[in-house]
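Appendix B. Worked example

We walk through a single record from start to finish. Start with the input: the chain for EAL domain-containing protein, Metabacillus sediminis, length 340.
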Amino acid sequence: MNYCTSCTPAPPFPDNGFLILHNLEENVTARKFLENADGSLSIPYSNGKELASLLQDLHEQTNTSLIKGALSRNPEQPLAYSPFSYIYERVIYKDLVSLINKGEFLSFFQPIVNLESGQIFGYESLLRSFNPPVSPFKLFDTAIKTGMQSILDRRARELAIIARSNQVKHGIKSFINFIPSSIYNPEHCLQHTFKMVKQYGVSPDDLIFEVVETEKINDMEHLKSILDTYRANGMKVALDDMGSGYSTYEVLENLKPDFVKIDRHYITDCHQDSEKQTFLKNVQALADDLSITVLAEGIETEDEYTFLQSIGITLGQGYLIGKPEASPAGQEKLFADMIL
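Next comes the structure step. The output line below is what the pipeline stores for this chain.
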């Protein structure tokens, strides 16, 4: 694959025209259909409100999982077919789709420290919208539901690289999230990212690309090819949410990430929970065996910090250490000065 339409912004829907569908049950609605030469069916609509109502009716009355659809002013010339769910979600959440396409975003910084020294090791880059403000979860959830994750994921990578290029000094790492399903062909889809790294003078060795916590790993070989492509270009990789269900020993041994993050569930009150303590010690032993650096996220108390430090966890992140900020200025002092 040398090109994919998923990496380009979603085209605007015509204010009036036809909803063109394949594999639709003809008795699902009383509306009149126009049968096209290719066997598809066209349903006319005159405005956005009518289109939303039509899609809602179809969504409620039939199994749309196999239906492909398109919107066009010409009933016999759809621009491109998509899963019905993508069209439905894009129309229902049109304001969020517009934001994903051309909204204003910033890349925030959340500090990550070495637990032993308290010194800043790096920052996680976190995408934030500010006009209007929308939660990151809602943004990425909508992007996935509408098939626009490649657009938002690529934008997040771009802004993270630009932000660190003029605000973070060499040697301090950047953890940049990515969604594996947004990268169809690593050699092609990541070329833009690699060009930006060169364009903005960022050292590849300072970049760590991290599988996001919401992503389910369905194709391990595909993910491995993505990680290998990052590594081949001088970057490091990380797996998120150790303990959430997919980061098993076999997975870690197969993928051999440079870093693994422990799910925050195991961090909360770890200083007084024996089961969590056993899990954390086992993870640390496993990581030592595979030469993987462990990062504990979600640290909110000094007791949690002290326990994690005592069992040899290398890196930490959380509100105790620092909240996401638009600038890392002032955060690059020793964390040890604040708590020790």
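Two observations about the output. The longest helix spans residues 149-165. Residues 97-339 form a domain with the TIM Barrel fold (CATH 3.20.20.450).
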